[in-house]
Amino acid sequence: MAGPAQTAVDPTTVDPPSVTPLVFTDVERGVFAEVQTALLAEASGVPAEAVRPREIAVVTMLSKCRVDKAVANYVKFVETLGEHGLKISELYQEEATLHSDMGPRFNDNYQVCGVDSGGRAIMWIAASKPTQVSEERIAVHAGVLAWLAVHSDIFTLREGCTFVIDTSQQNHVKKIGNEKKMQRTWQALPLRPQNLFIVGASWGKRIFINAMIKFASAFSSNKVLKRLRFVEMPAVREEVPEKDMPHVHGGEPRCTMANWVAVRIAAFDGLDSNWKR
Fold first, then answer.
1. What are the two backbone dihedrals, phi and then psi, of residue 124, each rounded to the nearest 5 degrees?
2. Which of 5, 173, 242, 267 is the most buried (most CB within 10 A)?
3. What is the pLDDT along the chain (277 residues), one digit of tens a residue?
């Protein structure tokens, strides 16, 4: 059943939710230190300036604190950013710059949500427009920031997230030619989805998406891919409380994506490479 009709609320008038600074256990910080040491070794090929606490923490937690897996995922992450002309040091900007540079991309591709029924953050991709070749760099930049923001609370880092790709507003199914390249890019971002929904996909879209999934299977674990479900919105509502849905789908009014990203990633402030708070 569809959610109640909502009166549109200007997201710039809504304050972002408060975020609790992240506090990791001694065991987790010890693993971060091991990953950092391995990445700083010359053999890793990762420049020292690209070895940063926030990214180490996120990648390691999403790699289930397995050192070898975290190092491999981090190397892939840095290499993938480089393929799009991005460096980790260039990812973070002032909130005003996020609005001016990333605002349109955030608005077109992402929705701010609450949490799922298990208390995990939700990454909601509103796939309304395909990524043009000329837009790849900014699309990747925005996508990485959204991914980091989703994983900026301790519960989601430990328990995974709900991942929703909403194709219900997407009328364009013609290939651009960069689909495999972009798929490789997104596969470089570690993810532990407890729910993985593709919403509103027509049969034509499903054929295309299934081709992408077959390609993605070379990079993602079968365990993750088995959680993927083609559904309509009522199935998502079974896992996401009404108030936590995007505002456009009946949830509470939300701030802008740029505001939400800026506040969420600030949860890492104070984390340093000595792994102390």
1. -110, 110
2. 267
3. 455 545 667 777 787 788 888 999 999 999 999 999 999 998 889 999 999 999 999 999 999 999 999 999 999 999 999 999 999 988 887 767 777 777 788 888 899 999 999 999 999 988 666 788 888 898 899 999 999 999 999 999 999 999 998 887 666 556 778 878 888 888 889 989 999 888 876 655 555 555 445 434 433 555 666 778 888 899 999 999 999 999 999 999 999 998 899 899 999 988 887 776 5
Closest to 256 in 3D by CA, of 13, 19, 17, 11: 11
What whole-number distance in Å separates Cα of residue 215 and Cα of residue 233?
26
What is the β-pairing status of strands 193-199 and 228-231?
parallel
Q: What's the DSSP call for residue 102?
A: I
Tell me which residue of 2, 12, 16, 7 sits closest to 263, measured CA to CA: 16
- Residue 59's contacts (CB-CB under 8 Å, 6 or more residues apart) are 35, 70, 73, 74, 77, 190
- Dig out the tokens for 134 from the structure: 């000329």
Q: Which amino acid is at 127?
A: A
Amino acid at 240: V
DSSP character for 177?
S
| Closest listed residue to residue 148, CA positions, set 53, 244, 11 | 53
Residue corresponding to tokens 């880092």: 157
pTM: 0.87
Crossing angle (nearest 10°) for helices 203-216 and 179-187: 60
Name the residue with tokens 């532990």: 192
CB contact set of 268 (below 8 Å; sequence gap of 6+): 22, 53, 54, 57, 152
The answer to whether the CB of 14 falls within 8 A of the CB of 263 is no
**How many angstroms separate the CA atoms of 276 and 22, rounded?**
11
